[in-house]
Specification:
single chain; 13% strand
Length: 304
Amino acid sequence: MEVALRNMFQSLAKNKSANKLARKYGLRFGAKRFVSGETIAEAISKVTELNKSSRVVTLDHLGEFVYTKEEANESTIMSLKTLDEIHASGVQSHLSVKMTSLGLDIDKDLCLNNMRKIVSRANQYGNFVRIDMEDYAHCQITIDIYEELRKEFDNVGLVIQAYLYRTEEDMKHLNELNANLRLVKGAYKESPDVAFPEKKDVDENYKKIIEMHMLNGNYAAVASHDEKIIQFTKELAAKHGIDKDKFEFQMLYGICEELQNKLVKEGYKVRVYVPYGKDWFGYFMRRLAERPANVWFILKNLFK
């Protein structure tokens, strides 16, 4: 049953008709648990609250299903505005971006130029941009664009997914660029030809890449709500004398609040991934796919 639900939500995440319907009804489906709002003002308000509890943030203006140059440019403008608002408000927040929303499926050069604008603006403000990794089909081109940007900028990082077979080799190469990496398990539905189908194998590979990256000395963002993974990271750092300023824990907005605060009290940096925007449906479906138990929370909201 759980596998069937997971597959259903992963399919819905890519469904244009469902996305259009969801936009019509806004965040009333219960997505407010995971999405901070539809406007930048709502998002900045949530960031301010999180900062008050000593948590830092990475903001993401959600965007999927971008098919025209005009849509890609609009998404780029929203990312630039987000950086402007972060700077103007003084909140502690980085920016995360998905390159498909910036024109990656239309033209690589269009996307690269849009990324240059964003990373350059962040650089002016002394801020940092994280490139989210998407599905396997976009993996190599995402790494290629990251490499191009690293020739010009130091304030840009990448996400690497533990469930892909290729990840260990990718990390060996990225280490040569002194890459700042967010390490995740992975949330897209992939073929067993390219990704570990069993959770236990994903978990083992996740530990392997965390250890690889932390021992090579480059900055690591361990993005997980799995307390076993978090404990593994703590013990690894203690064993090898890795300072707390060389890594951070990252979690999603609306998930494991108690654990986030506990880590802050223990002296670890905790960064909360805070999405906002009108194009929230795909993100929301992937959160439900990760933990179908959240469906009961959503159903209760629907009938309130």
